[in-house]
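Q: Given only this backbone (520 positions), what sequence would you predict?
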């Protein structure tokens, strides 16, 4: 949209947007008519606008703001919506409830920015007259937040979800366990948090670090996210990245008598789960409680960066490999993931795993490929559903520039704003069949060097704006158009108090990203 219409500079970009003459005024007397099935979206509209605009938006059969669920609008899919704003009425329609939730966020963006932060309660608010028809390109538009390495309070997670929803991102992948910490409470295994939730120091600051959620907090987060159309996907790492679990329960390791600490370093730890039955009892117990808290159809099992040295040195692991008909201990990785993945499938869930090559996970897994786009193609050709998470386009803990005032971060490739917006989830060489297996994409924010919510927002925004724009709109990257809309969109971020990295001439440049990355 031209600079003269900044209120129409929406992020992400709608599929079609047609301005119309006139404006619709919302005032204290404006009411909402929610047709059957649209009540939740109407409730969200009140929840989001009431405190900041002072508009009560009461329900009424004569309301000028109309929300309608119409299953006959099949072309809009699960998340698409149609929005028509005229001088007298607003009509938001969708085929599914989530489509109405996406439309509510568009209404928020169409209002003046101070409607997001809290304007005078006795004023009226204007919306531009417009007609929008909008459908997302990808089903999975996510962001992974690592709370294992640096625990974040649940208030930070709720705000993170709120900002995701504003940008129509729909998956919060919560990285709950790793070598450096275990944050998910498990009633049957209390030492996971009482021991595994504490480490003597972190690499970034040298001070002790601890934290864990309660199940009540996590359930409330799931509810908060669901009301905004966001699914929380939990990740419990295995069979590597498990040092915190082994510190709590040494019997799960390949040397059961060894006492380990929660890891204080960064990189790939060589201690991994053993392959005896006690380990699989542990995994089932943990995952049963995880599934009780998280209703997500997807459960992430980690799965990558699993050194096999301990298995190769273990007579018990070598015997296990031989009994399973494997060629050697190296085959235990796929066997392990297959056993645990099958358990999730039996429970009606879908296992997800990181893939370092695209070919190492059992067929029932949804694959997240991060090392190379070619791995996404390999996984799709094997029949996997794929979420593209290529580090050169989605790793937000990488620096955004070489400026000396950039905060410390993971060494490796730069991931500037342009690289995120240019990232295409569908890998080169994919035909229609392979492309159909790409669910979408997500950003990753590992937190070894990220301690505070303020740092998280600085690293996430505006790069998550770029990922949201590409994941929702699809097609070729319209970088100049995105930059123009983003310049206007920052007024909304300002109104919400987002601590984003300021836009500069350099940050809006299109220079290519840097060099190869180290292990995560």
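A: Predicted residues:
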């Amino acid at each position: 949209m031209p600079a003269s219409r900044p209120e129409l500079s929406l992020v992400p970009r709608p599929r079609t947007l047609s301005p119309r003459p006139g404006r619709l005024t919302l005032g204290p007397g404006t009411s909402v008519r929610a047709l059957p099935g649209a009540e939740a979206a109407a409730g969200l509209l009140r929840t989001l606008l009431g405190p900041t605009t002072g508009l009560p938006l009461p329900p009424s059969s004569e309301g000028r703001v109309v929300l309608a669920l119409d299953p006959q609008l099949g072309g809009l899919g699960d998340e698409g919506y149609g929005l028509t704003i005229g001088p007298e009425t607003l009509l938001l329609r969708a085929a599914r409830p989530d489509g109405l939730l996406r439309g509510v966020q568009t209404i928020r963006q169409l209002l003046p920015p101070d409607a997001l932060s809290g304007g005078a309660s006795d004023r009226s608010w204007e919306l531009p007259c417009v007609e929008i028809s909008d459908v997302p390109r990808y089903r999975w538009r996510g962001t992974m937040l690592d709370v294992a390495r640096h625990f974040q309070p649940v208030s930070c997670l709720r705000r993170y979800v709120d900002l995701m929803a504003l940008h129509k991102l729909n998956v919060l992948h919560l990285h709950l366990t790793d070598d450096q910490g275990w944050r998910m409470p498990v009633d049957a295994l209390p030492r996971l948090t009482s021991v595994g939730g504490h480490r003597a120091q972190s690499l970034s600051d040298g001070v002790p670090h601890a934290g864990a959620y309660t199940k009540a907090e996590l359930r409330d987060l799931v509810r908060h996210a669901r009301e905004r159309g966001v699914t929380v996907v939990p990740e419990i790492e295995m069979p590597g990245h498990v040092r915190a679990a082994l510190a709590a329960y040494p019997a799960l390791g390949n040397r059961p008598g060894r006492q380990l600490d929660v890891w204080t370093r960064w990189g790939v730890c060589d201690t991994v789960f053993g392959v005896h039955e006690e380990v699989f009892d542990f995994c089932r117990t943990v995952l049963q409680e995880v599934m009780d808290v998280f209703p997500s159809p997807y459960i992430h099992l980690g799965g990558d960066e699993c050194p096999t040295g301990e298995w190769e040195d273990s007579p018990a692991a070598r015997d296990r490999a031989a009994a399973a008909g494997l060629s050697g201990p190296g085959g235990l990785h796929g066997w392990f993931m297959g056993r645990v993945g099958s358990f999730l499938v039996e429970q009606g869930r879908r296992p997800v795993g990181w893939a370092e090559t695209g070919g190492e996970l059992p067929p029932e897994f949804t694959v997240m490929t991060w090392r190379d786009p070619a791995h996404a193609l390999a996984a799709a050709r094997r029949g996997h559903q794929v979420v593209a998470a290529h580090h050169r386009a989605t790793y937000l803990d990488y620096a955004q520039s070489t400026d000396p005032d950039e905060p410390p971060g993971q060494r490796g490739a730069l991931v500037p704003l342009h690289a995120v917006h240019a990232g295409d989830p569908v890998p080169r060489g994919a035909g229609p069949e392979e492309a159909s297996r790409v669910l979408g994409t997500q950003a990753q924010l590992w937190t070894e060097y990220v301690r505070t919510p303020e740092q998280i927002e600085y690293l996430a925004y505006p790069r998550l704006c770029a990922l949201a724009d590409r994941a929702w709109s699809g097609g070729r990257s319209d970088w100049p158009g995105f930059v123009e809309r983003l310049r206007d969109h920052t007024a909304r971020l300002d109104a919400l108090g987002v601590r984003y990295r300021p836009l500069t001439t350099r940050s809006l440049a299109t220079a290519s990203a840097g060099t190869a990355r180290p292990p995560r």
